[in-house]
Design goal:
The chain is α+β, with helices and mostly antiparallel strands. The protein has four helices and three strands. The chain has a domain at 1-61: Winged helix-like DNA-binding domain superfamily/Winged helix DNA-binding domain (Arc Repressor Mutant, subunit A, Orthogonal Bundle). A hairpin with a 2-residue loop joins β2 (40-42) and β3 (45-49).
C-alpha cells in the first residue's frame, strides 16, 4: 500500500488550485502569465505545487495583525520635473520644450 503524498509535495490542477483558494481559473492563468506563481508543465498539462503558490499568496495578500490593509510595494515613477540624479542621467528619458522636440 502506498503512503499518502505529503502536502508540500502535492500537485494540483488549475481547477483544484482555484477551488482551494476560492478564486477563478482565469485568476490562476493571469498569475501564470505574469510569472507570479511557479508551475510545472507536464506535456500539455499544467500542475502546481501547493506550498509554492501559498508562499506567493501569503507574501502578496496576507495582512499582518494590527494593519488595516495589505502592504503595497512602491513602484517609483519618473515624472516631468523629477530631480533625482538617476532620473536625469537616464538615456530613455527626454524632456520636451514648447516646440515638442526631445532633449531640448
Amino acid at each position: 500500500m502506498h503512503e499518502p503524498i505529503p502536502f508540500e509535495y502535492r500537485l494540483m490542477t488549475k481547477q483544484q488550485l482555484a477551488e482551494y483558494f476560492g478564486i477563478t481559473e482565469r485568476t490562476i492563468e493571469v498569475w501564470m502569465h505574469r510569472r507570479y506563481i511557479p508551475f510545472i508543465k507536464i506535456g500539455q498539462t499544467v500542475r502546481f505545487r501547493v506550498t509554492s503558490v501559498l508562499g506567493y499568496v501569503e507574501d502578496k495578500y496576507l495582512v499582518p495583525a494590527g494593519e488595516l490593509q495589505r502592504r503595497r510595494k512602491n513602484h517609483a515613477k519618473v515624472t516631468r520635473g523629477d530631480t533625482r540624479p538617476d532620473a536625469a542621467e537616464s538615456p530613455f528619458l527626454h524632456r520636451c520644450d514648447a516646440g515638442g522636440t526631445p532633449g531640448a
